[in-house]
Specification:
The chain has 153 residues and is α+β, with helices and mostly antiparallel strands. Helices cover 60% and strands 25% of the residues. The protein has a 4-stranded antiparallel β-sheet, with helices on one face. A hairpin with a 3-residue loop joins β1 and β2. The longest helix has 75 residues, at 2-76.
């Protein structure tokens, strides 16, 4: 009989011990959840910051391509022709320009059409205004940078 009582006492003790461990684990989980919830805005800020850093790195990497393309456009613009807008990406340049004379317009078309780094030029709308000159938009398709910079064998 003493053996049975000892087994029952051990069962109760182990039961209380397991209940206490379960309570401690639940408390620990709730504390860690509270910490995670408290840090959630910080984690979101870090993730947003990482995304912005990646965007900035991409922009910085592509900046030299844009500068090179702008320099190319600058050399192609004859006197009396200027850009009002220019959108540059890796494969094309889209811009609006004004030429003060038809000769300047023709020179621009000739120079952009014969540029080595441009594969195709599309001219959109053309409007002639007696006060400002010839307003037109264009799209120039660029040769990819890898092809431009590769050494010829």
């Amino acid at each position: 009989m003493v053996g049975t009582e000892i087994v029952v006492l051990l069962a109760f003790i182990s039961r209380f011990s397991l209940d206490r461990k379960l309570t401690d684990l639940k408390e620990e989980i709730s504390q860690k959840q509270a910490i995670l919830e408290a840090n959630l805005p910080f984690e979101q800020d870090v993730r947003n910051l990482e995304a912005r850093i990646n965007q900035i790195q991409t922009l910085l990497k592509d900046q030299s391509k844009s500068v090179d393309t702008l320099s190319l456009l600058k050399t192609l613009l004859p006197p009396g022709v200027y850009l009002t807008t220019a959108e540059i990406n890796a494969t094309e340049v889209h811009g609006d320009a004004i030429a003060s004379t038809t000769q300047g317009f023709a020179q621009f078309l000739d120079s952009i059409g014969s540029a080595k780094n441009i594969t195709q030029v599309d001219i959109g709308e053309i409007h002639k205004n007696p006060l400002t000159g010839i307003k037109f938009d264009f799209k120039a398709h660029l040769i990819p940078v890898k092809t431009q910079n590769s050494p010829k064998k």
